[in-house]
Structure to design on (192 residues):
């Protein structure tokens, strides 16, 4: 089964492409600095630009980060969903993932195939499966050959929704990237 193959590949330090409700993601073991480095290489992404991590639920996120009460309330309201929440990273989060920062983006995708993968192996990197600067991918047929060549497995979940996640720092009340649910998120930040 492809799902088992993808989970095994991640455990072995390889990269996989997986679907989310927004765009296809490029996944690797988020706690393995070597695997994270391979994500940067595949995307030709600047090392100063941090990566996020995907988890299956808030409990898993809490094992690897420090969530405040406000962040927990926000996560309960908006996740799973097309939102990346910037929170304080735990000590085992590699500096390669966060680009040396003390905060990390967490994502709980609202996609059955992604969640099945994450229930088997997590946290994994949550970044779009494209070469940096190129458009995000909504269908596996549109994957860049460089990305396809860098991964051990591609999980095909059909065409995705296409709108990238909104990136928000709840504690600081800042939206770093407007995407899906941005208006609702801003209204929540102002009300809480």
């Amino acid at each position: 089964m492809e799902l088992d193959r993808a989970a095994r590949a991640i455990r072995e330090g390889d990269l996989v492409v997986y679907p989310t409700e927004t765009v296809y993601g490029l996944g690797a073991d988020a706690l393995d600095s070597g695997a994270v480095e391979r994500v940067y290489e595949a995307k030709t992404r600047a090392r100063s630009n941090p990566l996020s991590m995907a988890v299956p639920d808030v409990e898993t996120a809490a094992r690897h980060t420090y969530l405040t009460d406000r962040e927990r309330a926000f996560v309960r309201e908006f996740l799973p969903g097309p939102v990346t929440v910037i929170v304080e990273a735990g000590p085992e989060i590699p500096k390669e993932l966060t680009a040396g920062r003390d905060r990390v983006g967490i994502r709980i995708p609202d996609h059955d195939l992604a969640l099945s993968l994450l229930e088997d192996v997590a946290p994994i990197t949550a970044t779009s499966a494209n070469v940096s600067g190129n458009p995000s991918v909504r269908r596996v047929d549109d994957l860049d050959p460089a990305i396809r060549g860098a991964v051990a497995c591609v999980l095909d979940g059909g065409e995705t929704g296409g709108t990238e996640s909104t990136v928000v720092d709840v504690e600081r009340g800042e939206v770093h990237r407007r995407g899906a649910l941005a208006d609702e998120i801003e209204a929540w930040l102002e009300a809480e």
The chain has one domain: 2-163.
